[in-house]
Amino acid sequence: MGLFDEVVGAFLKGDAGKYQAILSWVEEQGGIQVLLEKLQSGGLGAILSTWLSNQQGNQSVSGEQLESALGTNAVSDLGQKLGVDTSTASSLLAEQLPKIIDALSPQGEVSPQANNDLLSSGMELLKGKLFR
Fold first, then answer.
1. Which of the following CATH numbers is that of domain 3-127: 3.40.50.150, 1.10.287.3510, 1.10.10.690, 3.40.50.300?
2. I want to staple 58 with a disulfide (CB 3.0 to 4.6 A). Which of 5, 29, 89, 98 is the partner?
3. No. of H helices and E strands in the chain?
4. Do the Cβ atoms of 116 and 33 come closer than 8 Å?
5. CB 101 within 8 A of CB 75
6. How confident is the model over 17-26, as a mean pLDDT?
7. pTM (global) more than 0.85
8. CA-based angle 53:48:95, to the nearest 5?
9. Is the pLDDT of residue 6 over 70?
10. Closest CA to 105 of 38, 25, 50, 29
């Protein structure tokens, strides 16, 4: 099963709200470029490079690693959006963020359109996959 199939499968299972909340949260953090810079400066550059790469397979990351790189307050904000605690939010982010970044960077870098309007770009990726 490919990345888009996984994302769309989750979307169809009622997880669209989670994706929308994560994409909205990323925008609140300053956008995808700012988030990528935070991950890089937080010591996750090697992991991040696998998410951006055109190669198969994203290296996994733990919720604790993301919380350390992004800050507890930022992850807590996501938890509030999702109605879950910080630990659950960081686990969800660890599961979904690699897929989202990978999907937004099909050529190995995040598209300018995604930088300008992440929420629309992310939802368009799902929409495009659903209605091919």
1. 1.10.10.690
2. 98
3. 9, 0
4. no
5. no
6. 85
7. no
8. 105
9. no
10. 50
